[in-house]
Write a structure and sequence with these properties.
It is built from six helices and no strands. It is an all-alpha fold.
C-alpha cells in the first residue's frame, strides 16, 4: 500500500510543482499591481525559500513584515531563513514574533514553534531548522 502511495505522489510531483510555479507567477503579477501587498510578498518569499533562493526570500519576507508587521507567515519564513544563514539570535526573534502574531489559522504551528523555543538554548537550533523554508500558508 505504501508503495502505491509513493508512486502516486511521484506521478503527480510535476503537476504540483507546476501549480506552485503558476502561483508564483500570480504573486508576481499581484505585486506588479500592488508592490506592498504583504500576503503576496510573504507567499513569494516562501516560494523562493523552498527553491533555496534565500537572498530573494529574505528580501521579500522583510518587505512583507514591513508592510504588515502581523504577517505571521513572513515571520515564520524569516525564522527559517535566518537559521539557515547561521543567525540564531535573528531566527529566535523572528520565531518569537511569529508566535506573538499567529492567529487561529496558525495555532498548531505557533504552539510547535513556542515549544521549540522553550526547549532550545538561545544559541541552539530549533526543531524545524532543517526544513526547507516553506511558510505555513493558509
Amino acid at each position: 500500500m505504501l508503495g502505491k502511495a509513493k508512486d502516486l505522489i511521484a506521478d503527480h510531483a510535476d503537476t504540483v510543482e507546476g501549480a506552485i510555479d503558476q502561483a508564483a507567477a500570480l504573486w508576481r503579477h499581484a505585486l506588479s499591481a500592488r508592490p506592498g501587498h504583504a500576503g503576496a510578498l510573504a507567499d513569494l518569499a516562501a516560494w523562493h525559500a523552498m527553491r533555496g533562493e534565500d537572498g530573494a526570500a529574505l528580501d521579500l519576507a522583510g518587505r512583507a513584515v514591513e508592510a504588515d508587521p502581523a504577517m505571521a507567515s513572513a515571520w515564520y519564513t524569516l525564522g527559517l531563513l535566518r537559521e539557515r544563514r547561521g543567525d540564531a539570535a535573528g531566527a529566535r526573534a523572528a520565531r518569537r514574533r511569529f508566535v506573538e502574531v499567529a492567529g487561529p489559522a496558525f495555532a498548531a504551528e505557533a504552539e510547535a514553534v513556542r515549544r521549540g523555543l522553550e526547549a532550545q538554548p538561545a544559541t541552539g537550533r530549533t526543531p524545524d531548522a532543517g526544513r526547507n523554508g516553506v511558510s505555513p500558508a493558509r
